[in-house]
């Protein structure tokens, strides 16, 4: 293994592709920031117990995929595999829910870690932007989050995504369904591990991707037939609000998602250009999670969108984001004296808020102009000894190719004017 190789299942973000990742994070969070969601940041690791209780002992995430470690002090920690449990923990710790302003609306962005088998679109380190609305039960809140995710994807130019929607019922009706499902599943021809899953979390068997399992599930009892009236009414309201907002969704009664804590509304954003790892984002309501981690009753709803897969989705659709060049002015000094003078101009430009860069390393004109081109700068400033003797710099418009001499003392002001 080369010493320059990132660990298995991970990759580095380097320019220029990294700019797309920043833009995606920005685009996903913008609708949240405009809708009353405040930014929250939590540690990259938590006590392992938080996830064991909060994500669920029966999930793959907790049983197989968590990076756990014991510190020198003996603490059992885990790198965070997802965001919701941490955000809820932090909100409870800071008593945000007691400030009398429910729901507590939060958004976050960061790295997550799962020890999964790496493949295209599935990594051991990945990046999410997420949102949580804590402490309120209101179908409009579920609808808001789905609408905002839809808006985010559309603002990026994505079109080939679909929204899958389901209701998982609540603590009244879900247990009844769970039992009916268990009774049905116990009679099927399934392997040991799946049989164990029937006893711990039978709904997840419905999520099994294997064709031979899916074939046996055709006549499985449907959750829809077991939803209580309150859950049905709630779900209908979410659907009506989405429809009124012009957000297209598909009812998918097989959608259960991999985490234990979901109740009622559950949804996933899938992209058809991504192959097997087609989920670009997902979320739902988690009314029981707060109590599961030892907090008060706080019905909540949230989602997380995968940044890596969103970038892959953009690439699959051939969407090129309109990323403005980061450098507006590139300075090319020819000779020692010009170096000092132009470095001064670059500093002045930067202080005036104009993005400027400089040909470092005393390079020749040809090489330096190549760098200027590559930087995407609209203007270059070139100065040699003769220019300085005349008190001017050469200002070149890289778009039109036009070049003119500008008095040195006016160079920064002239550029500011031209760049508007
Ligand atoms: P989940 O918490 O599993 O619903 O994940 C939410 C979103 O995070 C998914 O829809 C993916 O976009 C992304 N995601 C989850 N796991 C991975 C992974 N191993 N690699 C890349 N993205 C992931």
UniProtKB/TrEMBL annotation:
Protein name (Swiss-Prot/TrEMBL): Histidine--tRNA ligase
Gene behind this protein: hisS
Pfam families: HGTP_anticodon (PF03129), tRNA-synt_His (PF13393)
Similarity field: Belongs to the class-II aminoacyl-tRNA synthetase family.
Annotated InterPro entries: aa-tRNA-synth_II (IPR006195), aa-tRNA-synth_II/BPL/LPL (IPR045864), Anticodon-bd (IPR004154), Anticodon-bd_dom_sf (IPR036621), His-tRNA-ligase (IPR015807), HisRS-like_core (IPR041715), HisRS/HisZ (IPR004516), HisRS_anticodon (IPR033656)
Subunit structure: Homodimer.
Location (main, coarse): cytoplasm
MF GO annotations: ATP binding; histidine-tRNA ligase activity
Enzyme Commission (EC) number: 6.1.1.21
Known catalytic reactions: tRNA(His) + L-histidine + ATP = L-histidyl-tRNA(His) + AMP + diphosphate + H(+)
Residues noted as binding L-histidine in the record, renumbered to the chain: 82-84, 114, 128, 132, 257, 261-262
Gene Ontology process terms (BP): histidyl-tRNA aminoacylation
GO cellular component: cytoplasm
Localization terms from the record: Cytoplasm
Domain Aminoacyl-transfer RNA synthetases class-II family profile: 1-324
Keywords from the named record: Aminoacyl-tRNA synthetase, ATP-binding, Cytoplasm, Ligase, Nucleotide-binding, Protein biosynthesis
The UniProt record lists the keyword Cytoplasm: yes
Tree of life domain: Bacteria
Family annotation (CDD domains): HisRS-like_core, HisRS_anticodon
């Amino acid at each position: 293994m080369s010493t320059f190789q990132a660990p298995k299942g991970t990759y580095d973000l380097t320019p220029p592709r990294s700019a797309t990742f920043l833009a995606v994070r920005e685009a996903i969070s913008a609708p949240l920031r405009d809708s009353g969601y405040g930014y929250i940041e939590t540690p990259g690791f938590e006590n392992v117990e938080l996830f064991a209780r909060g994500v669920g002992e029966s999930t793959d995430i907790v049983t197989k995929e968590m990076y756990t470690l014991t510190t020198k002090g003996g603490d059992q920690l885990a790198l965070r595999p997802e965001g919701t449990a941490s955000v809820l923990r932090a909100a409870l710790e800071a008593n945000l829910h007691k400030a009398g302003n429910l729901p507590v609306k939060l958004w976050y962005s960061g790295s997550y870690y799962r020890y999964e088998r790496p493949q295209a679109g599935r990594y051991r380190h990945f990046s999410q932007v997420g949102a949580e609305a804590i402490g309120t039960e209101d179908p409009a809140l579920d609808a808001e989050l789905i609408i905002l995710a839809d808006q985010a994807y559309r603002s990026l130019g994505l079109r080939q995504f679909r929204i899958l929607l389901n209701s998982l019922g609540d603590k009244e009706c879900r247990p009844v369904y769970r039992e009916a499902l268990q009774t049905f599943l116990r009679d099927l021809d399934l392997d040991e591990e799946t049989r164990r899953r029937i006893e711990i979390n039978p709904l997840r068997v419905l999520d099994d991707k294997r064709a031979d399992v899916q074939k046996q599930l055709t006549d499985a009892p449907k959750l829809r037939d077991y939803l209580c009236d309150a859950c049905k009414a709630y779900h209908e309201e979410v659907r009506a609000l989405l429809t009124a907002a012009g957000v297209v969704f598909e009812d998918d009664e097989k959608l259960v998602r991999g985490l234990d804590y979901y109740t009622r509304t559950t949804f996933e954003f899938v992209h058809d250009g991504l192959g097997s790892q087609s989920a670009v984002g997902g979320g739902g309501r988690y009314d029981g999670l707060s109590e599961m981690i030892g907090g008060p009753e706080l019905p909540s709803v949230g989602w997380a969108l995968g940044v890596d897969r969103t970038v892959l989705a953009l690439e699959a659709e051939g969407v090129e984001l309109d990323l403005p060049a980061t450098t507006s002015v590139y300075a090319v000094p020819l000779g020692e004296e010009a170096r000092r003078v132009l470095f001064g101009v670059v500093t002045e430009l930067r202080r005036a808020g104009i993005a400027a860069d400089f040909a470092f390393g005393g390079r020749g004109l040809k090489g330096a102009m190549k760098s200027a081109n590559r930087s995407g700068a609209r203007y270059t400033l070139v100065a040699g000894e003769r220019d300085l003797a005349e008190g001017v710099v050469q200002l070149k418009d890289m778009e039109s190719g036009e070049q003119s001499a500008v008095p040195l003392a006016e160079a920064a002001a002239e550029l500011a004017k031209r760049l508007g």
